[in-house]
Every structure is written in C-alpha cells, then in structure tokens.
Amino acid sequence: MPRIEFYVLSSNTTAERLRAACQLAGKAWRHGLPVFLRGSNAAQCTELDDMLWHARQESFIPHALHQDDPKSPVVIGIDETPDATQGVLINLGSTLSPHIEHFSRVIEIVNQEPDLLTACRENFRSYRQRGYDPKRVEL
C-alpha cells in the first residue's frame, strides 16, 4: 500500500506549486526512484516539461512527456499507465490517479488557492475512504 502525503505550501500561486513538484521529482530521482508527474491537463504537462528543461544546469533531471518516452526516469503525463512501478507519483491533478497502486509513494501538492484546497480536501477524504492513511507535510 503506498504512502500518501499532502505537501502543503503557504503560497497560493500555481508557479510555486509547479516549482515544488519539479524539486520533489528531482529529489526522488536522485534517490533512484522512478517518478510520474501527473499534470491536470496537457498545457500543465508542457509547462512542467519546460520547467524541468530550464532548471539549474548543474541539476539536470532526465524527463520526458509520457507520449515521447514512457520509460524516462521522470515521466510527465495525466492518466496514462506508468511504465515503472514502485516509484513516486506527484499528483497535480484535482482528482485521484487511477493508478495509485502502481506507486510506493504518492505526493499531493497543496497550495492556498481556494478551489485547489477544496479539491485536495476531497482527495484526502477519498484516500481515507479507500483505507489509506494520508499524512500532512508543511513545506
């Protein structure tokens, strides 16, 4: 059963949320874990791809959009089935991933934007209803 964590940011900006997702993806990859970055839509996936390409030069994170390379160490997608198992899912979608059981760890990134807070609270309840024990982590 995967470990579920809600990383809570104090900001209410989407940019900070995406930046946190990229940082967490890099950290997980450096620890040898496959990562699936789940965006909320195609535009957000493209933005994440761009952010990872323009991250600091000394900390390149090998990544690809799912349709380009589903075997990349860091994969960006929406609801595609992950190629790797037992890695980390970083969920930026407003709903639960249909592939939770493929991962050993699921991270939901929450900021203070009201609509997102509502969606994340619902996700928290949904995880509990499914028998998970989600934890809250302040960033």
UniProtKB/TrEMBL annotation:
Pfam families: DNA_pol3_chi (PF04364). Transmembrane segments: none annotated. This is DNA polymerase III subunit chi.
